[in-house]
Write a structure and sequence with these properties.
Elements: H1 4-12, H2 16-44, H3 46-66, H4 70-98, H5 104-129, H6 134-143, H7 146-156, H8 163-168, H9 172-182, H10 186-199, H11 223-229, H12 233-251, H13 254-268, H14 273-301, H15 303-330, H16 336-355, H17 357-368, H18 374-403, H19 405-426, H20 438-441, E1 447-449, E2 455-459, E3 462-463
Antiparallel strand pairs: 1-2, 2-3
Helix pairs in contact: 1-6, 2-3, 2-4, 2-18, 3-4, 3-6, 3-7, 4-5, 4-17, 4-18, 5-6, 5-14, 5-17, 9-10, 12-17, 12-18, 12-19, 13-14, 13-16, 13-18, 14-15, 14-16, 15-16, 15-19, 17-18, 18-19
Length: 464
């Protein structure tokens, strides 16, 4: 959509407000999709929820690729948005639930890495499709997304179902078989199965070869009340942490940079369309490269340290970008140094975002909710994520016209400062812990956060 918007405006003769609606409506619809996906995945399973998301993607892509009018294009964007909501909720949950603690950070960050690869391929394909005729080029940019949707729908059917979801259905034998395939050893598989059974309210000594009855609240019923109306102190803290990290991921401006990078570079002094599209390819390469680095560091360095480093770098980059764009906007002559520094600041911002806040948002929020609350709790986080994404993408043009483009990035920088404080005080380290430990980790009445983010948990046998 980033590159397509340059041509849609010219072809369909629409204004900036319609462009903002087109950009942001996907995320409004994704909010609805994410809220529906939690309960859906508890009912039909994680795997078939991904298949459903793929089908919705395909329909939306075909409509956008057809797009004879603005109304049809908008309808396709809405349908695709519902698919985005489903996929963004279920992919990290599925990854977290099949992963062992030693590799969970790496595997759960892969969806974000692949999103970045998708953005990079989108930028590259935009560059080449942009050379086609006006009426064909932007339709190819949007319609080509139907191809990976088909691949995803068939590919996921070859993957195993989440063993944790199978336990919630009482299908212990199937869960045990899958855990033996995805664990590092037989002993680890048995330990994980025992912990999952306890988390699901099943006797750890029950026969694994028979279908067992599972408590009703473990199958998705009554979860909203337990999360929102009667949460325990630990669940309340978990919810605040999940909502907060999803809020700040987009409140700090990444969607403005990814979606409107051609406009930002144009404001900095790049004028030709082919050079604008080429400059955005650099954004995609930077994003993908540093998320790949993050996937390798998450299980070694830890979530918390990367998150604080990432946010600190974003503060510096946003401040620099705001300064350079303000100078360019008030200068009557072309300033090559300011143009170069603006582009460097954009790449620096994307790099620091991608090495921490980008992937960790999805890793962290998918692993901290208790098993019985995970799918629907994650759906709340994703809904907040999409709401903020929509807010930024639908208001960015209006905001920078009101307070200047430099002032807008100073605003994002101020929000990044607030984000750093939130992460420092409220997000403990989760590296190396099993999913079944998280509720204890977040128990305020039994724990305290030390300066480095570790948790000291008081137990009957001492301090852990």
């Amino acid at each position: 959509m980033s590159g397509a918007m340059l041509f849609i405006k010219e072809d369909l003769k629409i204004n900036d407000v319609q462009i903002e609606v087109l950009a942001g409506i996907l995320n409004i619809c994704a909010l609805v999709g994410s809220l529906a996906a939690g309960r859906t995945s508890d009912q039909i399973g994680r795997r078939y929820t991904i298949v459903l998301a793929s089908i919705i993607f395909l329909v939306g892509s075909v409509l956008m690729g057809y797009g004879p009018t603005y109304a049809v294009l908008l309808a396709g964007r809405c349908i695709a948005g519902v698919g985005v909501g489903f996929a963004l909720m279920i992919a990290p949950v599925y990854s977290a639930e099949i992963s062992s603690p030693s590799s969970r950070g790496f595997l759960t960050s892969l969806p974000e890495l692949c999103i970045s690869l998708g953005i990079l391929f989108g930028y590259v394909s935009n560059y080449f499709f942009g050379k086609l005729a006006l009426k064909l080029g932007w339709r190819m940019m949007l319609g080509v997304a139907g191809l990976p949707s088909i691949a995803l729908a068939f590919g996921i059917l070859k993957m195993p179902e989440s063993p944790r979801w199978l336990v919630l259905q009482g299908r212990l034998a199937e869960a045990k078989e899958i855990l033996l395939r995805v664990s590092n050893s037989k002993e680890e598989a048995e330990t994980r199965l025992r912990d999952i059974k306890l988390a699901a309210g099943i006797d750890e000594n029950c026969n694994d070869d028979v279908l067992v009855d599972v408590p009703t609240n473990s199958r998705g019923k009554g979860v909203w009340k337990e999360i929102l109306l009667r949460p325990t102190p630990a669940v309340r803290w978990i919810l605040i942490a999940a909502v907060g990290i999803h809020f700040f991921e987009h409140a700090t401006g990444i969607e403005a940079v990814v979606l409107y990078s051609p406009r930002i570079f144009k404001k900095a002094g790049v004028t030709r369309k082919d050079k604008l599209l080429l400059a955005t390819v650099g954004v995609g390469i930077t994003k993908t490269t540093f998320i790949l680095v993050a996937t390798l560091l998450l299980d070694r360095v830890g979530r918390r340290r990367l998150l604080l480093t990432s946010t600190g770098g974003m503060i510096v980059a946003l401040t620099g970008l705001g300064f350079c764009l303000t100078i360019v906007e008030h200068s009557k002559e072309e300033l090559v140094w300011a143009l170069g520094l603006s582009i460097a600041s954009v790449y620096m911002f994307v790099a620091f975002f991608s090495i921490g806040l980008g992937p960790i948002t999805w890793v962290y929020s998918s692993e901290i909710f208790p098993l019985r609350l995970r799918a629907q709790g994650m759906s709340i986080g994703v809904a907040v994520n999409r709401l903020m994404n929509a807010t930024i993408s639908m208001t960015f043009i209006s905001i920078y016209k009101g307070i200047t483009i430099g002032g807008t990035f100073f605003l994002f920088g101020g929000l990044a400062v607030l984000a750093w404080g939130f992460f420092y005080f409220l997000l403990p380290e989760t590296k190396g812990r099993s999913l079944e430990e998280m509720e204890v980790l977040f128990s305020r009445n039994r724990s305290k956060t030390s300066g480095n983010g570790d948790i000291e948990v008081q137990t009957r046998n001492g301090t852990v």
